[in-house]
Amino acid sequence: MDRLNRGSKSLLAAVERLELQVPTAALPHQIEELLTIDHIAIPRSWSVRAAQRHPALVGQTRLSDHDAYVVEAVTPDR
């Protein structure tokens, strides 16, 4: 568990140092009651319009143990 905590702390420090935001941080995981471990980081100066999870399913068949995540954002020059 300590290793996970160090890794998480390192990632959070990098997000802060690089002035990023992670709009996927609050999105759900495919396992109910968990949050995703797959993330997209973008510059803090960008405005997030939407962040969405797209389950990796065809019908009831799971294609992957990871879902797809998409972020729609607007850059400051627009």
UniProtKB/TrEMBL annotation:
Protein name: Uncharacterized protein
Organism listed in the record: Nocardioides seonyuensis
Lineage: Bacteria, Bacillati, Actinomycetota, Actinomycetes, Propionibacteriales
